[in-house]
Amino acid sequence: MPIPADEKLKRLRDYRAHIMQGGGTERIDQQHERGKLTARERLALLFDPDTFEEMNLFAQHRTTDFGLDRMDFPADGVITGYGKVRGRKVYAYAQDFTVAGGAAGEMHEKKIAILMDLASEARAPLVGIHDSGGARIQEGALSLSGYGEIFYRNTYLSGLVPQVAVIAGPCAGGAAYSPAIMDFVVMIKGISKMFVTGPENIKSTTGEVVTAEELGGATVHAEKSGVCHVLAENEAEAFNKVVRLLSYLPQNNSTRPPHNIPEKFEMEPREKLNRIIPDDHYAPYDMKEVISELVDEDSFFEIQEYYAPNLIIGFGRINGYCAGILANQPAVNKGFLNGDASRKGTRFIRFCNCFNIPLINLVDVPGFVPGIAEEHGGILRHGAKLLFSLSASTIPKLTVILRKAYGGTFLAMGSKALGSDRVFAWPTAEIAVLDAETAVKILYRKEISEAENPDAELKKRITDYRKAFFNPYNAAANLIVDDIIEPANTRRHLTLALEALIDKEETRPPKKHGNIPL
Known about the structure:
Low-confidence stretches: none
Oligomer: single chain
Structural class: alpha/beta
CATH topology of the largest domain: 2-enoyl-CoA Hydratase, Chain A, domain 1
Mean pLDDT: 94
Distance between the termini: 70 Å
Number of helices: 20
Number of strands: 17
Number of domains: 3
Strand content: 15-25%
CATH architecture of the largest domain: Alpha-Beta Complex
Shape: elongated
């Protein structure tokens, strides 16, 4: 006897309701007791209301070993689908810790792979929400191979569509390499844990004792490893930051970032900038104050704020034009560039270049950090990355030299020679091979040593050298600088340059890729 349609509908509704409960009420309560949201609650924070469409809801594992044939894993522990974020299409997956601890098996991983393929075909950003105990051990090589499929797709999507990872729980072992490949990693204090080898394995192999938080917590990765790009106090803030981050990014590599250009530009002088450089050549100041005067109100979104803070990177808008900002920070270690800062800047430049985001360089740098530790740590390799990434980029590039621009770092921070389209200098700019004291000691060694008062002679020579050479006029005379501008008018000059260059196209000889120094 045929089954009535109403009964079939009831079965469907009941089955869907069961799956939507994930691991069930008890495990959902446990998730909340840990101070964590469920996978579905997280997706609700990310997507515009009533726009998320779930895929492959009824997926089930097919493993029979270790009693898995008697276990029910609703949606196989991961929710996948697509929807709108501020009206723009986004694909996302969220691992469900209430189902088998979010452990990833064959179908779990296949669901993610299918979603990634669709994101590729639709040319839309991908957001991955990670909360998992790792690979599903019971599925052995199948679970390992599934992660390989995900890594392959992360790499395929790299430079094609933006990829954002949110670490909303544990993310350990090989699983951690997927978010590490993605463009941005968002971590949450007290909740995120990310490492290749956990505390127990470390203790058994090296004897070192460390907690999960000390090893791979959010603050550790934000400050020490640089793995974390965006740090959040809680989950609500994390997803708010993801939504804001996406607002600066294009859908894919063939579209522009979402510029919000007003009908009339705001061009009023920012008088504070005329007074921001201290009279004392060595005195620090906060470059973030400069940035806040240049960008539209509250539009600067900093990336890797706590890692290598001697270099600032982030996104902002200038009269609605979206741009990446790369800036030295004189308030931290005098703005010197070291290996960590060079790597930080390199990846940011390459991301902007992938996705057609104009780059603005704000320069006040005395050089690369001197010393044995940096030399042995590969400062030559890391500084070369910065030079390479700027030279290889074809996006609109604007540079403003505020004060110091010495030696190789003058080149590495966006010189004309490395392809900057427009280079502006403030009247306080100092473009030189070396700082004045070192240069004078080399150039006038004999005169100083033979002087009646060597100290007085040194001071006089330094003063004369600074007056003659530590200004932007020689560079402007030789077309190394395009214009010397009043600081208060910098926002106006940048706006007009962005407007003029927004349609820039630059082609390079065909090749697979360059061989960036590692």
